[in-house]
Amino acid sequence: MTDGTSNLTPLTDEQYAELTRVSGGVDRECYDSFRQQCPDVSHEEFVASQTGECPWPLYLYAVVREVATAEESEEVCKAARERGRTEGFLYGYNYGRKNSLSHDALLSADAAGVAPFEYTRLRQQGDDHDTIIAAGRRSDK
User: Fold this and answer.
1) pTM of the predicted model as reported, rounded to 2 decimal places
2) What angle, 0 to 180 degrees and rounded to 10, lies between the N-to-C axes of helices 87-98 and 70-82?
3) Torsion angle, CA of 114/116/118/121, rounded to 10 degrees?
4) What are the tens digits of pLDDT across the range 103-127?
5) What is the pLDDT of residues 7-58, one digit of tens each?
6) I need a surface site. Which of 14, 106, 117, 120 has the fewest CB within 10 A?
7) How far apart, in whole angstroms, are the C-alpha atoms of residue 24 and residue 58?
8) Spatial distance between the Cα atoms of 72 and 76, rounded to a whole number of angstroms
9) For 56-119, what is the HEC assignment?
10) In this structure, how many other beta carbons lie within 10 angstroms of the beta carbon of residue 84?
11) Quick one: DSSP state of residue 8?
């Protein structure tokens, strides 16, 4: 979190030690880069991401949380877990969101069998949501 001046509040050695313990060994420099990437995510949320039902590696949590709310991140985690995919799916979700696609569109396309990267590519080519869903292409298997 920020200190009110958009600078991240420095963490204590104890906070870093806690995250290192629950994450399996993230180092301070790496964690600081995640905090810069996602300045609205609290230390407590990062810790919770490593101990919840879907403990992704911290870098993958940051990839999703950079473009999604905490609630959306939970839904993305659930979708990734249910479909047995993580890294490609999560990077594809990030890519789609950065290209102005909605959370709901990306998840509904994925549920219909179209991976987030593929869905984003097709939308960029001008295909509409319903056409893409009907084709049902998947590229992250």
Assistant:
1) 0.75
2) 140
3) 130
4) 999 999 999 989 999 999 999 999 9
5) 678 888 898 888 888 877 777 888 888 888 888 888 888 887 777 655 677 7
6) 14
7) 10
8) 6
9) CCHHHHHHHHCCCCHHHHHHHHHHHHHCCCCHHHHHHHHHHHHCCCCHHHHHHHHHCCCCHHHH
10) 8
11) B
